[in-house]
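Morning!

As promised:
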Amino acid sequence: MARTGRRPGRPDTRGEIVSAAARCFASAGYDATSMRQVAAGAGVDPALVRRFFGGKEELFTAVASAVIDPASALAAMADGPVDQAGERLLRYFLGLLGDVRRPGPLLGLVRAAVTSDHAADVLRQFLAETVHAGIAAGLHADQPDFRAALVASQLVGIAVARYAVRLAPLAAADTDELAGWVAPVLQYYLTGDHTTQEEP
Amino acid sequence: MARTGRRPGRPDTRGEIVSAAARCFASAGYDATSMRQVAAGAGVDPALVRRFFGGKEELFTAVASAVIDPASALAAMADGPVDQAGERLLRYFLGLLGDVRRPGPLLGLVRAAVTSDHAADVLRQFLAETVHAGIAAGLHADQPDFRAALVASQLVGIAVARYAVRLAPLAAADTDELAGWVAPVLQYYLTGDHTTQEEP
């Protein structure tokens, strides 16, 4: 899922640095992560991290590109019946977030977006390339940008409430139980009607 | 709404400090906020901040108590038809968050909860005292703790997506437009049935 691991067959220093950065962003947050910490995590010299990536913003973008694959997210929504797109998207997202006790690097991206404008920009771009594009192209619903933002609000809320704040009922629930409750909400945002709709 | 202002008729140094702390938590986040910054914001000596509050955790708890009034949140849910409790809760929450361009102190609490265990504890406690209690007492729905956590996930997601990440469609939408989309979701979490429900 996360493409940050060592590639087989040859040393991958760049990949090691991205993995270390992903761990730092997830555990310490964006602001508290330094190039020096990332270098220590990857077992390399800080100068090498700067040579590969320049600064923290570029490093964050590299982590996001390694974690989030827009094509996979689009496929998760598009491949299958339209009326189950919400459930497929939720399961894809929960898979990216990983185990509650050992969350994957996506949580670091979400956490970073709460405090960093650059991180928020990166996630907005991802949203436009995936959910927004998926709704407009595959689901043929009106107001794709508004719907994508609502979908994002619920997914980000699950990430924060279940993985960061660790609300006990959400942390204890398994994927099927969460899907039973939340998938209908995502489906409603993706394709449903609502009462006070205004044309864009 | 926020009870952090100066009380009429006498100087309120404690209140000034809480207001300054709320501004710091909202703009800089929990980790980056120092007692010294809060003191500077309130125009007092750092020693006075420590004398009143002890440490940053106690200061955060004081800000949360000033911002969040469990009785008002409970009343927002309980006072009126049960089938509009979701809309009332959403409007109460959006009112607490304030204007998109000048968010109120609640956003600082939500941001802090993403990175600080203490802040997360404080918000979990608030959730148990309000949404959870409201569902159990007034709405007579099953699984009140699970439902409260789902409500929290959507509300926190709106706070992050609209006010912190500032997704354009959500930032541009007015309260009525948001309520048209999101209130049915909160209502579903508060009182609705769902497909794969498991008894606790």
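Chain A is about 70% helix and 0% strand.

Hope this helps with the figure draft.
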